[in-house]
Amino acid sequence: MSVITDGQIIQNFKDPEKREAAFSGLVSKYQERLYWHCRKIVINHEDADDAMQNTFIKVWKSLAEFRADSGLYTWLYRIATNESLTVLKQKKKFLNHTSIDEYIQTQSDNLTSDSYFDGDETEIKLQKAILTLPEKQRLVFNMKYYDDMKYNEISDILGTSVGALKASYHHAVKKIEIFMKID
Q1: What is the pLDDT of residues 86-107, one digit of tens each?
Q2: Using CA atoms, how far apart are residues 39 and 41, in angstroms rounded to an integer?
Q3: What is the C-alpha to C-alpha distance for residues 47 and 76, in angstroms, rounded to an integer?
Q4: Nearest to 52 by CA among 42, 62, 61, 67
Q5: Are 153 and 142 in contact (CB under 8 A)?
Q6: CATH topology for the 119-183 domain
Q7: pLDDT digits (tens, 9 = 90+) for 52-81
Q8: What is the 3-state secondary structure (H, E, C) of 116-158?
């Protein structure tokens, strides 16, 4: 079985007879990576599922017009990032007086009871450290550290200069190092 390329997915999606199969191929190829990307932003499983559903709805509606100014992967990550941030903003409205940072902190306290999280004590401490970061630093750190993305890819996704991303990553790493040294 050969892996379908992004170009084949886009080409097949434009053909009404191949559209559903092409979309299924896209979902199969990217679903897991996008889920974990969303999950790192919104923290809990249900919110990540909501972000993923919204992402794939937008992709279904927009893929036929995809201009390939960026790679398909980058485009998908941009949509998933925006949908994840939208889920967090909706949470903030729902939670009234609770800030997003307070909500994220509450979620970090629940990591050990999360059936989808199987990290050891060091991983739990790392996740808690990441969750103390400001939103932009958290996004950049996760994309660089976990997804091993290049700065130019992150720049395309977040619409931020490479220099600013490097600075954000540097500051994030320093804050995490300090957090990890605390007993």
Answers
A1: 998 887 776 665 565 666 666 6
A2: 5
A3: 18
A4: 42
A5: no
A6: Arc Repressor Mutant, subunit A (1.10.10)
A7: 999 999 999 999 888 877 889 999 999 999
A8: CCCCCHHHHHHHHHHHCCCHHHHHHHHHHHHCCCCHHHHHHHH
